[in-house]
C-alpha cells in the first residue's frame, strides 16, 4: 500500500509539471496570435488539431497503455510535449496556420496520453483502499491538476509579457524535460499493463453506464470550452481592455479555484449524500444546477450590468458547480470500470471528453465572432442541459457497481 501511494505521488508530480506547460502554451498561443491580428475564429482553428488528435489519442491511448504500460505512455506524452513546445520557437515567418496547427496536434496527443495514463494509474495504484478513498484520490489528482493548469495560464501570460513568446517556450520545455528524466528513474515499469494483450476492438466500451457517462461528458466539457477557449480571453482583452497579465491572472485564478473545489468535492458530496458515494442521481442533480449559470450571466450582460463584475461573480459560481460535476464524472468512470480494463475504459471516456472540447473550441471562435460572449453563454447552457438529460442513463453505484462488467 505504501509503495502504491509513493508511486501515486510520483505520477501526480509528473502530471502537475505537464499540466503547467499545457495551460501555459494555451494562453501563449491565444494571446500571441490574437496580438498578431488573427480573428477569434482563426485563433480557435489553431486548436482544431489539438482537440481532434485528443479524440484519436484517447481512443488508441487506452489500448496502448493496456499493452505497454501506463508509465510508458505517460513518458511518451511528456517527451512529445517537449518537442511541441520547441517546435513553436522557430522564426515568426515560419508560424503559418498550418504549422501551428501541426505543433498543437502534437501537444494535444501529448496531453491526452499524459492525462489518460495518470488518471488510469490511480485505479491500479490505490485499488485496495475502497470506493470512498478512490473518490478522494481521484478528486485530489484532478483538482490539483486543474489548479495547476490555472497556474499555467498565469505563467504563460506572465512569461509572454516578461521574456516573449519564444523565451517562454524554451523555459517550459527545459523544465518539463527535467521532470521527464526524474519520473523515468523513479517509476516502475508495466503499471496498468493487461496480462492478455487486448484487441483494438475492445477499446469501445460494452458497459452501458460508461457509454452514457461518456456522452454526458462530451456535452459537459463542450459547455465550458464554448466560452472559455476563445470568447472569454478575447472579450477581456478586447472589450474590457485588460492586459495580458490581467487576462492570464483572472483565468488562472478561475481554474485554480475550480481545481480546489474539485479536490474538496468528496467532502462536499459526502455531506449531501450522507456518506454514500455519488452515482447517477448526483450527476443529474448537479448538471441541472449548472445549466442555470450561463443563462443568468447572459441575461445580466443583456441588461447592461457592469460586465467585469458580472463575469467575475458569475464565472466563480459557474466554476464551483462545474468542478463538482467534473469530480463526480472523474470518479464514476473509475468506479464503473473493471480493474483490469481501466486503461481502455478511461481512454474511451476521455475520447468523448476531447470530442466535447473540440466542438466547444470551434463553436467558441465562431459564436464569439458572430454573436459575442452572450451567444457563447446561451449555447453553453444548452450543452449542459443535454449532459443532464444523458445522465438519466447512469446507474446508482450502491446497487449496480459490483455487477457492471465489460462482457
Morphology call = globular
Termini Cα gap: 30 Å
What value does the average pLDDT take? 80
CATH architectural label: Up-down Bundle
Into which percentage range does the β-strand content fall? under 5%
Q: What's the CATH H-level superfamily name?
A: MFS general substrate transporter like domains
Note the total helix count: 14
Series of H and E elements: HHHHHHHHHHHHHH
Main sheet, how many strands, which sense, barrel? none
Radius of gyration: 20 Å
Using the coordinates shown, work out and report the CATH topology.
Growth Hormone, Chain: A
Describe the structure.
The protein is mainly α. It has helices at 2-35, 40-46, 48-68, 70-87, 97-125, 131-186, 208-228, 231-238, 244-272, 280-290, 292-302, 307-335, 342-390, 397-400. Helix 3 (48-68) crosses helix 13. The model is unreliable at 399-407 (pLDDT under 50).
Describe the SSE topology.
Layout: H1 2-35, H2 40-46, H3 48-68, H4 70-87, H5 97-125, H6 131-186, H7 208-228, H8 231-238, H9 244-272, H10 280-290, H11 292-302, H12 307-335, H13 342-390, H14 397-400
Helix pairs in contact: 1-2, 1-4, 1-5, 1-6, 2-13, 3-4, 3-5, 3-13, 4-5, 4-6, 5-13, 6-9, 6-12, 7-12, 7-13, 9-12, 10-12, 10-13, 11-12, 11-13
Amino acid at each position: 500500500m505504501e509503495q502504491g501511494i509513493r508511486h501515486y505521488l510520483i505520477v501526480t508530480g509528473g502530471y502537475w509539471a505537464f499540466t503547467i506547460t499545457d495551460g501555459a502554451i494555451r494562453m501563449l498561443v491565444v494571446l500571441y496570435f490574437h496580438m498578431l491580428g488573427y480573428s477569434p475564429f482563426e485563433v480557435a482553428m489553431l486548436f482544431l488539431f489539438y482537440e481532434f488528435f485528443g479524440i484519436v489519442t484517447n481512443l488508441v491511448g487506452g489500448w496502448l497503455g493496456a499493452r505497454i504500460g501506463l508509465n510508458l505512455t505517460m513518458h511518451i506524452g511528456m517527451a512529445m510535449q517537449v518537442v511541441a513546445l520547441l517546435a513553436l520557437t522557430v522564426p515568426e515567418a515560419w508560424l503559418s496556420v498550418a504549422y501551428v496547427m501541426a505543433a498543437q496536434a502534437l501537444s494535444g496527443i501529448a496531453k491526452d496520453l499524459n492525462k489518460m495514463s495518470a488518471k488510469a494509474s490511480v485505479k491500479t495504484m490505490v485499488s485496495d483502499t475502497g470506493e470512498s478513498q478512490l473518490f478522494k484520490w481521484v478528486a485530489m489528482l484532478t483538482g490539483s491538476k486543474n489548479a495547476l493548469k490555472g497556474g499555467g495560464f498565469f505563467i504563460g501570460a506572465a512569461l509572454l509579457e516578461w521574456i516573449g513568446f519564444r523565451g517562454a517556450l524554451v523555459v517550459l520545455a527545459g523544465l518539463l524535460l527535467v521532470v521527464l528524466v526524474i519520473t523515468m528513474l523513479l517509476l516502475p515499469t508495466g503499471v496498468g499493463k493487461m496480462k492478455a494483450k487486448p484487441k483494438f476492438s475492445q477499446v469501445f466500451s460494452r458497459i452501458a453506464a460508461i457509454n452514457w457517462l461518456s456522452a454526458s461528458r462530451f456535452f459537459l466539457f463542450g459547455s465550458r470550452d464554448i466560452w472559455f477557449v476563445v470568447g472569454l480571453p478575447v472579450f477581456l482583452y478586447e472589450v474590457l481592455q485588460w492586459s495580458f497579465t490581467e487576462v492570464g491572472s483572472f483565468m488562472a485564478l478561475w481554474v485554480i479555484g475550480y481545481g480546489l473545489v474539485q479536490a474538496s468535492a468528496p467532502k462536499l458530496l459526502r455531506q449531501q449524500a450522507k456518506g454514500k458515494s455519488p452515482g447517477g442521481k448526483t450527476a443529474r442533480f448537479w448538471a441541472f444546477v449548472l445549466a442555470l449559470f450561463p443563462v443568468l450571466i447572459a441575461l445580466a450582460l443583456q441588461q447592461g450590468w457592469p460586465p467585469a463584475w458580472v463575469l467575475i461573480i458569475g464565472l466563480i459560481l459557474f466554476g464551483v458547480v462545474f468542478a463538482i460535476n467534473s469530480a463526480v464524472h472523474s470518479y464514476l468512470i473509475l468506479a464503473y470500470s473493471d480493474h483490469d480494463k481501466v486503461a481502455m475504459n478511461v481512454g474511451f471516456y476521455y475520447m468523448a471528453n476531447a470530442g466535447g472540447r473540440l466542438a466547444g473550441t470551434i463553436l467558441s471562435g465562431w459564436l464569439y465572432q458572430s454573436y459575442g460572449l452572450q451567444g457563447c453563454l446561451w449555447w453553453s447552457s444548452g450543452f449542459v442541459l443535454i449532459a443532464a438529460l444523458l445522465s438519466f442513463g447512469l446507474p446508482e453505484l450502491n446497487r449496480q457497481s459490483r455487477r457492471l462488467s465489460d462482457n
